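Lab notebook, bench 4. The sequencing result for the construct came back, and we need a structural model before the next group meeting so we can plan mutations. Quick request posted to the team channel:

Model the 3D structure of this chain.
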Amino acid sequence: MKNWRYWLMVFIAVVSLLNLVAVPQPSSSNYWLLAVYSKFTAVVLAYFDMRLFAWFAKHRKIDELLEYINEDK
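Done. Here's the predicted structure in C-alpha coordinate form:
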Protein backbone atom coordinates (compact mmCIF):
# COMPACT_ATOMS: atom_id res chain seq x y z
CA MET A 1 0.00 0.00 0.00
CA LYS A 2 1.78 3.04 -1.30
CA ASN A 3 -0.78 5.66 -0.45
CA TRP A 4 -0.52 7.26 3.00
CA ARG A 5 -4.30 7.60 3.09
CA TYR A 6 -4.66 3.83 3.39
CA TRP A 7 -2.41 3.75 6.42
CA LEU A 8 -4.31 6.63 8.02
CA MET A 9 -7.64 4.83 7.59
CA VAL A 10 -6.16 1.54 8.86
CA PHE A 11 -4.67 3.27 11.90
CA ILE A 12 -7.99 4.90 12.79
CA ALA A 13 -9.81 1.58 12.31
CA VAL A 14 -7.35 -0.26 14.58
CA VAL A 15 -7.62 2.37 17.31
CA SER A 16 -11.41 2.20 17.03
CA LEU A 17 -11.38 -1.59 17.29
CA LEU A 18 -9.07 -1.51 20.31
CA ASN A 19 -11.36 0.99 22.02
CA LEU A 20 -14.34 -1.22 21.26
CA VAL A 21 -12.86 -4.34 22.85
CA ALA A 22 -10.99 -2.59 25.67
CA VAL A 23 -12.26 -3.15 29.19
CA PRO A 24 -11.09 -1.00 32.10
CA GLN A 25 -9.90 -2.59 35.33
CA PRO A 26 -12.86 -3.71 37.42
CA SER A 27 -11.24 -2.24 40.54
CA SER A 28 -11.24 1.24 39.02
CA SER A 29 -13.36 3.75 40.92
CA ASN A 30 -14.95 5.10 37.73
CA TYR A 31 -15.29 1.80 35.85
CA TRP A 32 -18.55 2.62 34.10
CA LEU A 33 -17.39 6.05 33.01
CA LEU A 34 -14.26 4.58 31.42
CA ALA A 35 -16.23 1.76 29.80
CA VAL A 36 -18.82 4.10 28.27
CA TYR A 37 -16.13 6.58 27.21
CA SER A 38 -14.10 3.90 25.40
CA LYS A 39 -17.18 2.61 23.55
CA PHE A 40 -18.26 6.16 22.64
CA THR A 41 -14.76 6.90 21.35
CA ALA A 42 -14.84 3.71 19.28
CA VAL A 43 -18.13 4.69 17.64
CA VAL A 44 -16.94 8.23 16.91
CA LEU A 45 -13.68 6.99 15.41
CA ALA A 46 -15.50 4.41 13.27
CA TYR A 47 -17.87 7.11 12.00
CA PHE A 48 -14.95 9.43 11.29
CA ASP A 49 -13.16 6.62 9.42
CA MET A 50 -16.21 5.96 7.25
CA ARG A 51 -16.63 9.64 6.46
CA LEU A 52 -12.92 9.92 5.66
CA PHE A 53 -13.21 6.96 3.28
CA ALA A 54 -16.22 8.59 1.58
CA TRP A 55 -14.36 11.91 1.24
CA PHE A 56 -11.25 10.26 -0.19
CA ALA A 57 -13.39 8.27 -2.64
CA LYS A 58 -15.34 11.36 -3.71
CA HIS A 59 -12.15 13.30 -4.37
CA ARG A 60 -10.52 10.31 -6.12
CA LYS A 61 -7.64 10.02 -3.68
CA ILE A 62 -7.91 6.24 -3.26
CA ASP A 63 -8.68 5.02 -6.77
CA GLU A 64 -6.44 1.94 -6.48
CA LEU A 65 -8.35 0.71 -3.46
CA LEU A 66 -11.72 1.31 -5.11
CA GLU A 67 -10.60 -0.56 -8.23
CA TYR A 68 -9.46 -3.47 -6.08
CA ILE A 69 -12.78 -3.56 -4.22
CA ASN A 70 -14.79 -3.45 -7.46
CA GLU A 71 -12.76 -6.21 -9.19
CA ASP A 72 -14.88 -9.00 -7.74
CA LYS A 73 -18.22 -7.57 -8.87
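The helical segments are 4-21, 31-58, 63-70.
Will bring this to the meeting.
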